[in-house]
Write a structure and sequence with these properties.
Elements lengths: L1 H20 L25 H6 L8 H23 L5
């Protein structure tokens, strides 16, 4: 039971982080100087676009985000499967 709650918590946090770095984040939940004073963590999200700014890949930010999100979620699933116990 605790393993499932922990797994759901980790998956929810990973989803929130993936949503934050995407271009779809619309909330400003912290001040303009960044989360915990870290200027790179701006309140409006869209970090993938910011990371790719000035490169030839800027127009593919959504595709790069989608592939990265797929890889992160796949790795999380593999990690959960590795530690999963069979109860019966």
């Amino acid at each position: 039971m605790i393993g499932r709650i922990l797994g759901l918590t980790v998956a929810t946090l990973a989803g929130a982080v993936l949503y934050y770095i995407s271009r779809f984040w619309g909330w400003s939940l912290w001040p303009r100087d960044g989360l915990l004073g870290i200027e790179a963590l701006r309140p409006q999200g869209g970090l993938v676009t910011r990371w790719l700014r000035g490169s030839d890949f800027t127009e593919y930010d959504l595709l790069i985000w989608a592939v990265g999100a797929f890889l992160v979620l796949t790795l999380l699933q593999k990690l959960f499967d590795l530690f999963k116990r069979d109860d019966g």
